[in-house]
Amino acid sequence: xxxxxxxxxxxxxxxxxxxxxxxxxxxxxxxxxxxxxxxxxxxxxxxxxxxxxxxxxxxxxxxxxxxxxxxxxxxxxxxxxxxxxxxxxxxxxxxxxxxxxxxxxxxxxxxxxxxxxxxxxxxxxxxxxxxxxxxxxxxxxxxxxxxxxxxxxxxxxxxxxxxxxxxxxxxxxxxxxxxxxxxxxxxxxxxxxxxxxxxxxxxxxxxxxxxxxxxxxxxxxxxxxxxxxxxxxxxxxxxxxxxxxxxxxxxxxxxxxxxxxxxxxxxxxxxxxxxxxxxxxxxxxxxxxxxxxxxxxxxxxxxxxxxxxxxxxxxxxxxxxxxxxxxxxxxxxxxxxxxxxxxxxxxxxxxxxxxxxxxxxxxxxxxxxxxxxxxxxxxxxxxxxxxxxxxxxxxxxxxx
Length: 400
Prior knowledge:
With 400 residues, the protein is an alpha+beta fold. 38% of the residues lie in helices and 20% in strands.
C-alpha cells in the first residue's frame, strides 16, 4: 500500500513539473506576474502583508489586488497593510456590482480610475468604506452615470463640511485631514471629490497645471469618465466642461512642462504629475492632456460666436390650419430643416400627450432662408419656407 501511494505521489509531481500547469499566483493573470515579483522584492519587510492581501482576496477580485500591488509606489509597498488593501478592493468591487454605470465600465477604466485608494502623494487614508456609505444615499436613485456625477458633485460640500480656505495646513491634504480642519486648497478639494466619485463607482482622476499661462500659479480640479470621454468638473460645480478657468486652460502650452495641463494615473503613464509643493516626487504618474483642453476651449468659443448669431425657432405641427393652439390638436411627426439643398437639422414635433412646453426647437442663423420638409396627410411630401430675423420665432406646420 505504501509503495502504491509513493508511486501515485511521484506520478503527480512529475506530471505537474512537466505540464506547465503550476500557477505561480493563483487566479492572477500572468501579465501581472513579473510586476508582482518586482513589487514583492521592493516591499522589504512588508512583503508578507502584500502576499497576505493577494492570497486572501476573493477570486473575482484577484486582478484588482494584483493591479494595485503591481503599480503602487515603493512608499506604499513598504507600509500598507493587508487589511487596508483588502477593504479598499472589497468596497470598490461592491460599488461595481451595485451601480449600473459601474457594471458597464471597461476593466481598464475600473482598475485605474475607480479602484485606486489614492490620487497623488496625500496621506493614505482608509476612506473607501466610509465614503461608500456616505455617498450611496445620493446616487441610490440614479439610473445613469451623469445623474450620479451631478448628485455627488452637488452634495459633497454639505456631506464632508469642507470649504476652500488658504489657511489650510498644507496643499496636499488627505480626505480626513481636510475634513478634520473643515478647509482645504484646490488640491485637497480635488482629492475629496475624486475619492467620493470613486467610492460609488464613478471613474475619476485629478487634473491640473503647475502654472497658468500668465504665471498666476497652479490649480487642480477633477475629471470624470463618461462613455469613453473625459469631462472636467470641480468641487464647486458649474457643470461638466464648464468653469471659470476654461479660458486660461485654452491658453496652456502642451510643450512647456510648467504651463501644460496634466491628468493623474495610478499606473505608469506618459510622464509624472508636477507637484508644486514637492518637485522631487516623481511617482505620481500623469498624462499630458493639454491639447484636449485647448480643443474644448476653442469649441466653446465657436459656440458662443454661433449663439450670438442665432435665434430659437419653435416648430408646432397641427392636424389642419383650423386647429387651435391646444394640446389635442398637435401631431407628432418628423421634420427636417434645409438651407438650400443642404439638410442642417431635424427632429420630431410634440404630440397630443406631451407637455405644452415641450416644443421642437431649432437654433438657426439670423437673416437666412430655411425650408422645413415633412410628410403630411396621406404620405405627401410638404415643405414650408421661412426667413429668420433678429428675434426668436414660432412656425406652425399642418398635416393637411
